[in-house]
């Protein structure tokens, strides 16, 4: 199969077994802010995707000449460039993706992390890996000794929805935090809906997610991290 650039999802409408996927790329060295440092690209694959061959598939993806010529990544100096080289090593981990409702975050209200007004409860300033913590939300996301850390189990924290939410909330060391929860939830929901595919189960009528999510570390001359969502 051939992979195309993000301007158009190549192969759409050409083959009934196409696998469409998005790739989110962001720089992990000296990560200070998301502004201008995160991008989403869409590619397609015109053959059957077999999840058990994910490592082989992901490495072939990064080493495809079309991907190499078009996949964007950020250099250490903060400039966007294209991959343009062979990937030496990849690590692909399946990211759970089962949540279909933003009610997943209601516990933040019921347990006193966020007030009924939507305002995030403040706390004494602290730091974690250079990230300032000045409210209970960031304590929940980062500090294991937080009184509310157990609101989300380990399996909850591995969910793709939670990963997106956490990334948007934390941003980087220069992130200007919101005082209310609403913008975080709205942006998380918008991204989540754009990045996954769903369908209704014909028997139960429940909404189920058909996308497979991988967290991919690809190693070349510099490191970059990607999240890939597959739409089958």
UniProtKB/TrEMBL annotation:
GO terms for cellular component: axoneme. Its main location: cytoplasm. Keywords: Cell projection, Cytoplasm, Cytoskeleton. The keyword Cytoplasm applies. It is found in: Cytoplasm, Cytoskeleton, Cilium axoneme. Belongs to the CFAP300 family. Cilium- and flagellum-specific protein that plays a role in axonemal structure organization and motility. May play a role in outer and inner dynein arm assembly. This is Cilia- and flagella-associated protein 300.
């Amino acid at each position: 199969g051939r992979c195309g650039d993000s301007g158009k999802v190549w192969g759409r409408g050409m083959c009934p077994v196409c696998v469409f996927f998005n790739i989110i790329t962001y720089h992990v060295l000296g990560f200070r802010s998301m502004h201008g440092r995160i991008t989403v690209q869409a590619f397609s694959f015109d053959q059957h995707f077999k999840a058990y061959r994910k490592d082989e598939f992901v490495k072939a993806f990064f080493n495809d000449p079309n991907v190499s010529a078009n996949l964007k990544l950020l250099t250490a100096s903060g400039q966007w460039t294209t991959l343009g080289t062979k990937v030496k090593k990849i690590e692909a981990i399946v990211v759970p993706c089962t949540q279909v409702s933003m009610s997943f975050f209601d516990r933040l209200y019921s347990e006193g992390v966020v007030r009924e007004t939507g305002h995030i409860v403040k706390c004494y300033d602290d730091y974690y890996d250079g990230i300032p913590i000045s409210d209970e939300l960031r304590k929940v996301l980062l500090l294991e000794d937080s009184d509310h850390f157990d609101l989300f189990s380990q399996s909850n924290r591995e969910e793709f929805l939670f990963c997106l939410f956490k990334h948007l909330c934390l941003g980087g060391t220069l992130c200007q935090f919101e005082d209310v929860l609403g913008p975080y939830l709205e942006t998380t929901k918008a991204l989540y809906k754009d990045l996954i595919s769903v369908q209704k189960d014909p028997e139960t009528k429940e909404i189920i997610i058909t996308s497979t999510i991988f967290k991919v570390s690809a190693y070349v001359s510099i490191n970059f991290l990607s999240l890939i969502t597959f739409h089958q």
